[in-house]
Amino acid sequence: MKKCQVVLKSGRRRSCSTSSTMITNVRYGECQKNQAENIGGYAFDGCREFMASDSEGTNGALTCAACGCHRNYHRREVETEVACEYT
């Protein structure tokens, strides 16, 4: 039995004609919040990666421990793996 592994970035889709398993990993990268918006400027705080303040399932899970902003301000990176099994 041969196995093939296809790594897809968001936007492209491929399918296998035999049994396949799809694994989706979501990672939140650098903060995109404009900290100087209220004074008409443009500045980032330098937060490089989202770290949840609390455990999954609580309100703190949506707040970044490093910069204090909501998870939606961080760049969302979706990585999808499709593992196909050919017989």
Description:
By secondary structure, the chain is mainly beta. The protein has a domain at 26-84. 0% of the residues lie in helices and 38% in strands. It is built from no helices and three strands. It has strands at residues 2-9, 20-31, 74-86. It has a three-stranded antiparallel beta sheet, with no helix packed on it. One of its GO terms (biological process) is regulation of developmental process. One of its GO terms (molecular function) is DNA-binding transcription factor activity.
SSE map:
Blueprint: E1 2-9, E2 20-31, E3 74-86
Antiparallel strand pairs: 1-3, 2-3
Domain ZF-HD dimerization-type: 28-77
Pfam families: ZF-HD_dimer (PF04770)
Keywords: Metal-binding, Zinc, Zinc-finger
